Prior knowledge:
Elements: H1 16-28, E1 36-40, H2 43-57, H3 64-78, H4 81-85, E2 91-95, H5 100-117
Amino acid sequence: MNASRGFVLDGFPRNIAQAEALDDVLQEIERPLGIILLLELEDDVARERLLRRAELEGRADDTPEVIDRRLATYHDQTEPLVDHYLPTGKLVKVHAERAIEAVWAEIQQALEHVEARA
């Protein structure tokens, strides 16, 4: 796999310690982050979507209790990354409650903006 044009980190970093370690590694290899996409979604919408996914895909790990723990962990450990990355000017908030096509269009537009800056 060739990552010369870039790479995507999905679901990482998940906390401040991981973000700081990532920042150090990227600085060491001289590969700064180009963009950080924050998919914003209200908890009730996320919960509803995950429960629907459990039904459609037969996922035993998407129970209401597990979902609530994941959301609590997100708010406690991952959400502080917004304040960590906001000063970089690379954090792009994506309104993820809309239809998939609209969310994807917003992501594509953000990525095109990054490519135009490069």
